[in-house]
TrEMBL record, chain A:
PROSITE patterns: CHASE, HIS_KIN, RESPONSE_REGULATORY
SMART domains: CHASE, HATPase_c, HisKA, REC
Listed name of the protein: histidine kinase
GO-annotated biological processes: cytokinin-activated signaling pathway
Transmembrane segments: 42-61, 344-367
Organism per entry: Elaeis guineensis var. tenera
SUPFAM superfamilies: ATPase domain of HSP90 chaperone/DNA topoisomerase II/histidine kinase, CheY-like, Homodimeric domain of signal transducing histidine kinase
Amino acid sequence: MVVCCKGSALSRLWKSKDQQVQQLKHYQPQNSKGGGNWRKKFLFLGILLGVLVSIWIFLSMNANIIARRKETLANMCDERARMLQDQFNVSMNHVHALAILVSTFHHGKNPSAIDQKTFAEYTARTAFERPLTNGVAYALKVLHSQREEFERQHGWKIKKMETEDQSPVQDDYTPEKLDPSPDQDEYAPVIFSQETVSHIVSIDMMSGKEDRDNILRARASGKGVLTSPFNLLKSNHLGVVLTFAVYNADLPPNPTPEERIEATVGYLGASFDVPSLVEKLLHQLASKQTIVVNVYDTTNSSAPIKMYGLDVRGAGEIHISNVDFGDPLRKHEMHCRFKHEPPLPWSAITTSLGVAVIVLLVGHIFYAALNRIEKVEDDFREMRELKVRAEAADVAKSQFLATVSHEIRTPMNGVLGMLQMLMDTELDATQQDFAMTAQASGKALIALINEVLDQAKIESGRLELEAVPFDVRDVLDNVLSLFSDKSQGKGIELAVYVSDRVPEVLIGDPGRFRQIITNLVGNSVKFTEEGHIFVSVHLVEEVKSSCDFSNQVIRDSEDGIGMSYNTLSGFHIVDRWKSWENFRMFKFSTEASDAINLLVTVEDTGVGIPQDAQSRIFTPFMQADSSTSRTYGGTGIGLSISKCLVDLMGGEIGFVSKPGIGSTFSFTAVFQEGRKNLGDMRRHHPDPPVSDFQGMRGLVVDGRCMRAEITKHHLQRLGIHVDISLNSKSALSGILEACNLSGAGHLDMVLVDKEAWGEGSGLAFPRLLAEFRQNGLMKPQENLPKMFLLATSLSPTEVDDLKSAGYTDTMMKPLRPSMIAACLRKALGVGSKRQREKGQAMALRSLLSGKQILVVDDNAVNRKVAAGALKKYGAEVTCADSGKAAIQMLQPPHKFDACFMDIQMPEMDGFEATRQIRSMETKVNELIKSGEASSEMYGNVAHWHIPILAMTADVIQATYEECIRCGMDDYVSKPFEEEQIYSAVAHFFESGTVDSVS
Amino acid sequence: MLGLGAARLEADMNRLMALLFHQGVLDEQFMQLQQLQDESSPNFVSEVISIYFRESEKLLKNLRSLLADRECTDYRKIGIHLNQLMGSSSSVGAKRVRTVCLAFRAASEHNNWSGCLRSLEVLEHEYCYLKTKLHELFQMEQQRVMAAGARYHPLLS
């Protein structure tokens, strides 16, 4: 059994290992089948072994029982034999004593002291001493010569023992009927006898054959001698006769047999009735019923004479014990055997049967277990196969979706393009409407297909993320501007906050990051009717340690009392901590590296997600319920895509939502920190020129500190120093104080929220200020700060009231730095001289107009295009077709303001040309500096450094670094893009123009 | 009558452009090129394109001769030529020509002569197609200008 267990366990172990290593091998099934057979063989072997063991147990127990029985028999038999022998010896000793008595008192005395009467009386009274004898008698040795005298003396004839006819001794045995003894050499007539055997008086013992032998042997040996068993006279019982010889007194010591015969005077005989004797003995012993006892005379070993015993057929083995009755010539044996057959060995049978049953039961259990294991393994194999097939089907589905979506997109683009062209033709109003509807539907379809394509790409694992530098704040501003129309239309607050600790430039996939946020904000906008949507971006580490961190925006805003909560819009929101408390990054400390872990939270005060739908919100095509899609539209694929994208970015997404209160979605994403000012950064806008507002001071007046904090955040991004006033009184005093101060404390702007202390209350703020002034508490002064109103929505009448109320302008929320900057610029007049608000093209034109620019390119087409593009912005372009020509033309003094240089040119490439130009310039600069050449010689320029911009088609980091290394200032990618030229050129020319203007 | 013809011509041009865009023969760069054309340089696009054709034909001829002999082919030179062709093609927005150039360059980097030859054939085919279509376009443009000129600026023509 143990072997069996071990075998199966081992094979199971081996198998499981095997399965882990070889998931999909085809020979696996055969292997495990083989293993199953082996286990079964082991099992049957084990059962067989168990049965054999039970048989062995039976046999050994049985043998044990038989041996014990034999031993018991032997013990009992020996005990009986010993007792019989002892009692016989006692009797024999007594008979011997009697012989000596006769010798002493009959022959030693003259006249004899014993006569028949005395003898009979004495022997009768001492019979208890000889329990085994039934009688003793004394016969005298009478020679033939003495016969007559003896017969005469006793008055009777010596008689012969047997009658003539040799018939068996009769019951009515009387000595009188016996014949007189014939003549012989000598006679042994009985003269004394015990009462019980008085019939043998006068019988010649020598005439009986047995007795005669006995007498002869007894007188020769001088010891007690036994006859072989024979039927005793009269009693007709089987018996033996013990004979002792009686010698006269002058027997020499150590006599020879002849001397003994000579000295013999008589014989004392005692008859033993063996059956009754043994019977009596056995009656004294316990358990006489269980065994059968037989006593044999085995003097003649070939024909033993049975002396005692019943003819009952005993059973089983015979045990033989020797019995010594003191006569060396005679051998006696006692045979014992059990009366009954040995009982069945029940204990052995039950024990072995029990073991066998247990073995079979255990075997059955193992067999069942093996069968079960086999079945489970079969099932497992089947399941695994099914799983592989299911996965394959899933991948196939995703690939199919991807392919089909892609294939649909191409013709759809054609349809849309044609529709666009159709709309450009002359259509009447109805046709235009139809076409527009068709186009809108087409666009919706394209959007859906794009989403499906994304989903499919993600599922089939084909989506790969970019790793380019980007600005998180830009991305968020972008998303906000996308939804500003909708949020303004609905009148909900939309705000974004990016923690200061988030680096400006990150490396990652801005498109996908934007997609996630757009999706989340889009959902929030869709499901929010009033209140706010708030997007915040923090570092994970920052939030983790924010227990002791005093950032107003992170800190939970659940401490609001009453109806107004300390949130963006005063509405109650869910506990957003819960949305990220299960994130991995929060549970485990992140490994220290240059990875930036961002936590983005989108919180809204919308309808919330029903509890029962929350579990399947990230499943594709699952909306909260079917009525959602009826009410709000959409496919419900967006969240699932977002989740996949977040996973790809190494983050997690989570949410918490309460119906009627709102939802908060949070996700983390891992980015790398990027270096600032990378030339190949993808710029959505040129950075708002921060310098314009640097050092200005502003005051934000808002009763709600969250909102004020966010306004402050955006203003700070523009470099404005901001204070916050939470109530009108402190605001007024702040303004007052600032007006009285000059210089450092000067206040440039006051931003008042329209709903600073409740519906429309912000509108009334300037009136308070005016009243304040009228009360004479404040001297009328010129430098009153400009007032701005922050609003989510404004009715036309309110717009009209603004100016009269004292506001300079309105900023529509959501706040974006570019928008704030534009508004401030307009109101404060900063930067107006550069006409930046008229757009980049104009800005570029103003920057480039009249500038002398050298374009160096060996490719005539590129040269022409670059020249054309720059000319468009009013620059005067000169072309050079090789690096050498460029060096020639850029030898100081020259008239050029900038140089666009192609990198890949034959003979001398852009890097080399730039290097040579720079060395040339350095030489000239040194000459001027050392005074060896006056600056007049070089066109009145004290320091020559022409901005050189590389033009290249391959925009990779290595190229950028190489450009900087060889002395180039920046680079633009081919083909030209307006924005890029602007941002590159502005860098060089702005400072120049400012210098020249100021 | 003439004005109507100009409108039709313009529609035809748009259609042709849309077709070329849809086929991927041209890309946005061509549009940008068109935007660069204004009063100060009325023939800017056609000038650029004719320079492009001139240069490209030279390059194609060179490539053909470089690939004439299988044994002594200078793949480095081919690479330089291809870079030039690619640069000018991306400048005018000849998207398909550029794509074929990319494949060609990959083949030349692997010193795959037969691949180069195949690419060259495709390249020539693409180039011819582009040339025909652009010629067509310019012809229409010219007709349109003439028609428009006749319509709006009778004094100028």
